[in-house]
Design a protein that fits this description.
Keywords: Signal
Distance between the termini: 26 Å
InterPro entries: Porin_dom_sf, Porin_O/P
Number of strands: 22
Structural class: mainly beta
Pfam family, one: Porin_O_P
Number of domains: 1
Strand content: over 45%
Order of helices and strands: HEEEEEEHHEEEEEEEEEEEEEEEE
Protein name: Phosphate-selective porin OprO/OprP
Radius of gyration: 23 Å
CATH topology: Porin
Organism: Luteimonas cucumeris
Number of helices: 3
Largest sheet: 16 strands, antiparallel, barrel
CATH class: Mainly Beta
Strand order of the largest sheet: 2-3-4-5-6-7-8-9-10-13-14-15-18-19-20-22
CATH superfamily: Porin
CATH architecture: Beta Barrel
Shape: globular
Helix content: under 10%
Length: about 425
């Protein structure tokens, strides 16, 4: 459901009222809890150079698009209250006025005051995927990697326990549906462990492993991915709806290296759908990304709870410049094409052929003062998918006019993306 204009106006007014020199607004001490107010507003623009599919048409999604090869949208309008105390308790309540849904809404108890040893209950990001766990306002690229958007388990209601220190940690979680009605659902569990054998300021090496398993609830799933463009209305890879799926389990491997102003990170995920009915074979999809970012102005990154953190510019008046490059792949093919047997004229598929997609993203970020960020990305997409199409009326092949048949379609668009961001 879309938010009302008055709700969005309230979010924007709150953003504009925030002091420009602070990352958050301190409200008061209430009941022994130090309460602060944070927010994030993002506005995006996408310009498409289409190839096969019209990325802004959206007919299959029930959306008409705007009729242009571009799309503009207020991406996020997040309002967040946080509290520290009383004692070792921390709490957070977040809401996205643009998406009309709750964000983090939980209470955490730090055992012995150690932030790496805790109990947590409520809605929170599940322990999987380093990119998913990283702060949205400091994403290296405008769109998260395809595997993160497709396979990672984001915020769910649950209970978690974490144990570790600054160099390592293990978190286990049991979760259910998302707090906002009619969104993500299906109970499950997850575990993530990480280790940073090198962990110094400006010099970090991290490795991690995660596993998440969840019930599909309705015994169906559909895995699909946009071409690393959040406003695109078309998915270039798509398994379609898979029936008779009991559970989905995803294993993730991650790595991170920080050396001064340079950062390299990557993840690989493999997701399996367990199908219980004879004739429907199990499905496995996979993919990964690797990215490199250079802080041209010389700043480095922090490291906390197994994820990199982005600090403020060294000189807030001049700002911080970043340039990055990412290679991203997702493979939703788990089957084969069977040659047609007469009298059939169309090949058939054994298994699932959802498609394969590679993207290369070149990005530039500019952080100005303590509250502003401007991002520009160029995305080069190469995808291939086995689909059902209908031929047109052609004089070259009159025998196949308006005939349904299957074929492999390559779709290689280019996309330019921009984002304006204000946060406090």
């Amino acid at each position: 459901m879309k938010p009302t204009p008055s709700t969005l106006t309230l979010a924007l007014l709150a953003a504009l009222a925030a002091p420009a020199a602070h990352a958050e607004i301190t409200i008061d001490v209430i009941g022994g809890s130090e309460v602060s107010f944070e927010g994030l507003v993002q506005a995006d623009g996408n310009w498409y150079s289409n190839d096969f599919a019209d990325l802004n048409a959206g007919a299959a999604e029930g959306n008409g698009g705007n009729g242009d090869n571009s799309e503009f949208e207020l991406r996020r309008a997040e309002l967040i209250l946080k509290g520290k105390g009383p004692g070792n308790f921390e709490w957070v309540l977040g809401y996205d006025a643009k998406a009309d849904k709750y964000l983090d809404a939980n209470i955490k108890y730090k055992i012995g005051g150690n932030s790496n040893h805790f109990f947590q209950v409520g809605q929170y990001k599940q322990p999987n995927s380093m990119e998913e766990l990283s702060s949205t306002k400091n994403n290296d690229f405008i769109s998260k990697a395809a595997i993160t958007n497709t396979f990672a388990v984001a915020r769910r209601l649950g209970v978690a326990y974490g144990y570790g220190d600054s160099d390592w940690g293990v978190t286990v979680s049991a979760f259910g549906r998302e707090l906002t009605r009619n969104l993500a659902h299906g109970s499950g569990y997850g575990i993530r462990g990480y280790w940073a054998p090198i962990n110094e300021k400006g010099n970090v090496f991290h490795i991690g492993l995660s596993y998440a398993s969840l019930d599909t609830d309705a015994d169906t799933i559909r895995l699909r991915a946009r071409p690393d463009a959040d406003l695109a209305l078309i998915r270039l890879v798509d398994t379609g709806t898979l029936a008779d799926v009991d559970r989905q389990a995803t294993t993730g491997i991650e790595g991170l290296w920080i050396h001064g102003p340079f950062k390299v990170q990557g993840e690989y995920m493999r997701s399996n759908a367990d199908r219980y009915r004879a004739g429907n074979t199990d499905f496995t999809g996979s993919g990964g990304y690797i990215s490199g970012v250079w802080n041209i102005t010389g700043e480095t990154w922090g490291y906390k709870a197994g994820v990199p953190t982005t600090g403020l510019p060294d000189d807030t008046a001049k700002g911080m410049w970043q340039v990055g490059l990412r290679y991203d792949n997702i493979d939703l093919n788990d089957g084969a094409v069977i040659a047609p047997v007469p009298p059939s004229t169309a090949p058939k598929v054994n298994g699932v052929l959802g498609g394969d997609m590679d993207t290369y993203t070149l990005g530039v970020n500019y952080y100005w003062r303590s509250n502003f960020k401007v991002s520009l990305n160029y995305v080069n997409v190469s995808s291939s998918r086995f689909i059902k199409t209908t031929s047109g009326n052609t004089s070259e092949d009159p025998a196949n006019n308006n005939r349904t048949f299957n074929r492999v379609v390559d779709d290689n668009p280019h996309i330019l993306e921009a984002r304006l961001q204000f946060f406090w």
